[in-house]
Structure formats: C-alpha cells, structure tokens
Amino acid sequence: MRWGLIPSWVKDPRKITLLINARSETVNEKPAFKNAMRRRRCLIPADGYYEWQVAGGRKRPFFIHRRDGRLFGLAALAETWIGPNGEELDTVAIVTAAASPDLAVLHHRVPVTLMPDDFVRWLDCSEDEAAPVTAMLRGPREGEFAWHEVSTRVNHADNDDAQLLLPITDEQRAPGEAPKPARKTAPRKTPPPAADDGQGSLF
After folding, report:
1. What b-and-e string marks burial along 118-129, b requiring 16 or more CB atoms within 10 Å of the CB?
2. Does 185 have pLDDT greater than 50?
3. How far apart are the C-alpha atoms of 72 and 74, rounded to whole Å?
4. CA–CA separation, 74 and 92 (whole Å)
5. CB 34 within 8 A of CB 28
6. What are the residues whose beta carbons fall under 8 Å from the beta carbon of 25, sequence distance 6 or more?
7. Res. 202 pLDDT band, cuts 50 70 90
8. Is residue 168 part of a domain?
9. Is residue 40 a part of any domain in this protein?
10. The whole model's pTM is what?
11. C-alpha angle 79/5/60, rounded to 5°?
C-alpha cells in the first residue's frame, strides 16, 4: 500500500494533502477517515518506529520500541482509490493518539499500538460499526516503551540494515556535533526562523 490515505471520493489525488496520520480523537467524524474506520481497519506489524527531536542545535533520530522487546501492530486505516479510468490505488494511514508523559519528551503524538490479543478485535469489521473498538485508540501506557538515539544514517533511503536500530556511540555522535568552521562572507540580514509546521514528524 502507498503510505498516505486517499479517500475514495477524491477526484484528483494530486490535489489532496498527504494524509499519513489519522487523529484518534476525530477519526470517527472526519470525512476522510470515518468510512475506513468502520469498514477497513488494518494493522502494520512493527518492532519499533523512529522519531526525530531537535536537541543541541540539530535533529536527532530515536528508535522507539516496547520495553519488553515484543512485536506489536500499528493501528491503521486503509482505502482504495479508484480513478476515472478504472485504475486502483491502495493507501493507508496510521492512527495516532496523545503521548504518555514519558514519550511526550520526544513528541506529543504517538501511534496507537496494539498487542496480539487485540488484533482480531481491531480487524473485525463485520459489524460495520466503529464504536466497539474506539476505546482501543490510545497511546502506550507510561513505561511500556523505551527509546535510544540512533545514527542519522536512518535518514537515507539507501541505508537498510540492522545497524540502524543500534544505539549511537560517542564516536558516531562526535563528528556530527563538531562545529563547522566559520565562513567569511559579507554580513546580511536573515529572516527569523519559521515555526515548525510538524511536517518533519510522523505524528
């Protein structure tokens, strides 16, 4: 599936904002998600996910995982967009919730994570009603998840290996934090930094 849900009623996918997240608080009311919430709930299997945080003047990636090391499912919604020529595009978005106090130090939103005991209940769309599973739409409880900083190699699509999950070492961190030599350029006025619009984050 393509990450970024496209509602079935959209006429031109190029003119819709990429919907990679569905907020748990409004997922049953938003036109883009409410039908998928009733009929097309799905799971994305995972052993963790990445989040970026600005600290020390640079963005740092963190790998977030269950403290007990177990696998889990990210609660997600699927939709199939059918184009004017009959072409089909399967798309998906994850459901997010408010973060617990410990995870909120990295980001105020987190994916809704489900354990195997809840898989069947979440995936059962036979009743055509989302109310029975709405209570499941919450973030992990405090202490359930742990995290550690990883290498910025994770930011390059060409890198896809197990080393991306390992905690960063002091040797790896030092080169990235070394100050760059000042460049001798003519002074100029610079605009104030723009406010973060959240688009650099998954949640």
Report:
1. beeebeebeeee
2. no
3. 7
4. 11
5. yes
6. 97
7. very low
8. no
9. yes
10. 0.81
11. 145
CATH code for the domain in which residue 119 is found: 3.90.1680.10
Structure tokens at 151: 């290498």
Give the other-Cβ count within 10 Å of 31's Cβ.
Answer: 8
Q: How many residues does the chain have?
A: 203
- Assess if residue 179 is contained within a domain: no
Residue predicted with more confidence, 90 or 202: 90
What would the pLDDT profile of 83-132 be if each residue is shown by its tens digit? 888 889 999 999 999 999 999 999 999 999 999 999 999 999 998 889 88
The token pair at 123 is 């995936």
Q: Which domain holds residue 58?
A: 2-155
Q: CA 105, CA 122: separation in Å to the nearest integer?
A: 29
Contact predicate 74/43, CB 8 Å: yes
Percent of the chain with pLDDT over 90: 68
Structure tokens at 53: 């945080």
The number of folded domains in the chain is 1
Measured over the CA atoms of residue 136, residue 138, residue 142 and residue 144, the dihedral's sign is positive
Percent with pLDDT over 70 in the chain: 85
